[in-house]
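Anyone have C-alpha cells for Guanidinium exporter? Sequence:
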Amino acid sequence: MAWTLLFFAGLFEIGWAIGLKYTDGFSKLAPTVLTVASMIVSLALLGLALKALPVGTAYAVWTGIGTVGTALLGIGLLGEPATAIRLACIALIVSGIMGLKFAA
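Reply: yep, here.
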C-alpha cells in the first residue's frame, strides 16, 4: 500500500510541476488553485507513504517519478527537445527508481 501511495504522490508531483507552467507566474486563478491542490495532495500522500518506507528511498522515488514524468510531459506537451542524450538520462533515472524499489 505504501508503494501505491508513493506512486500517486509522484503523479501529483508531476501535476504541480507542469501546473506551474500554466499558472503564468501565479497570475491565472484556476491553474494556480489546481497546482497548489496538487502540491498539497502530493505531500500528504508522501507523508502517508513514509509511515512504512525509509525516508531516503521514498523521497528519491517520489522525486524520480516527478522528474521523469515532468521531463516526458515537457517533451510531449511543451515541445521541449527529445534528444538522445536527454532520453538516455531519463532512462537512467528510471533505472535508479527501479533499483531503489527492489532494494527496499
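The first helix runs from residue 2 to 22.
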